[in-house]
Amino acid sequence: MPELPEVETTMRGVKPHIIEQKITDVIVRHPRLRWPVPPDLKQHLVGQVLHKLSRRNKYLLFHFANGTLILHLGMSGRLRVLAENAPANKHDHVDICFGKHKYLRFTDPRRFGALLWTSEDPALHPLLADIGPEPLTNAFNGDYLWECARGRKVPVKSFIMDGKIVAGVGNIYATEALFQVRIRPSQPAGKVSRVHYQALAEAIKKVLRQAIEKGGTTLKDYTQSDGKPGYFRIELQAYGHDGEPCPRCKTTLKTMRIGQRSSVYCPHCQR
DNA sequence: AGAGGTACCTGGCAGC
DNA sequence: TGCTGCCAGGTACCTC
User: Nearest nt (C1') to A158 (CA)?
Assistant: First the structure.
């Protein structure tokens, strides 16, 4: 998916078009996403004005007077604002219409995405209640990571990809941050030093900030909300470079599987 | 409680 | 050309 930078980029791209706009229709073509789209979603939304759009973890939150739409892009999800009601393609599952010339279209080939409704405080929703700090806040730092890691035996890569520890760090940026600070992804989380965690936290912040600035990473399915590709891929040094020479030491980069995810690393630099 | 594996789903690609 | 198997940005949920 879209990792955090892609979700953030999507939010920023879509927001100016739909904020303070009134929903006039909701078209659900394929309700079977990760969880079924609530059958009464349309009743909740039509006539409501979008007051606020925010992001928590990789969830987008559309705030209305009567509740909140929680949207996740899953692995392959995408949101675009269309000015015309272009014919829907196979994977265009949901349209949220803001008048006749503004369609927020949710597209998701793999259907791991989700649209949910809550009339409670969304921060208390089961999907969001146990999420760790946002990585770009001061609450997330090396000391925090080190504290959380006491006694943990999971590989450090799985640890930083655990949303309960820190929100929004996915496979690409976890791989990249660990490469930058020369920590082997398989290293047990509890064995990584405080100093290394301080470097790691900074690397995570840096790589996420850069990716957001560049408009997200271009991967197979990802484009920004205006259809332009993200431009970050060219700057990734480890992810996607298995078999190529390490940019630091020229040792051939290798891949290992950690938690069923592929992890590229340098066998020489990353200890 | 923590660790590890499975499941959800489609499409693209390598290899035969 | 066509089949098979594997891989892909996520993460809730299950078992041990």
Answer: B3
Instruction: Find, among A220, A222, A223, A251, the residue nearest to A238 by Cα.
Output: A251
Closest nt by CA–C1' to A58: C10
Please enumerate in sequence order all residues whose Cβ is within 8 A of that of A37, keeping only pairs 6 or more positions apart, or say none. Answer: A28, A31, A93, A94, A115
CB-proximal positions of chain C, under 7 Å: 7-13
* A104 touches A81 (CB < 8 A): yes
The pLDDT tens digits of the residues spanning A50-69 come to 999 999 999 999 999 999 99
Enzyme catalytic residues of A = 2-3, 58, 261
Residue A2 binned pLDDT confidence (cut-offs 50, 70, 90): confident
Both tokens of residue A238?
Answer: 């480890």
Which positions in strand B are less than 7 Å from the protein's CB atoms?
2-12
pLDDT tens for each residue of A84-140: 888 999 999 999 999 999 999 999 999 999 999 999 999 999 999 999 999 999 999
Q: How far is CA A170 from CA A49, A157, A239, in A?
A: 32, 10, 12
Q: Which residues touch strand B (CB under 7 A)?
A: A 32, 34, 75, 90-91, 109-112, 151-155, 158, 189-190, 220, 259-260
Amino acid letter, residue A98 = F
**Spatial separation of the C-alpha atoms in residues A79 and A105, rounded to whole Å:** 6
Mean pLDDT computed over A221-238: 62
Tokens representing A58 are: 């990789």
Q: Which pLDDT does position A67 carry in this prediction?
A: 98
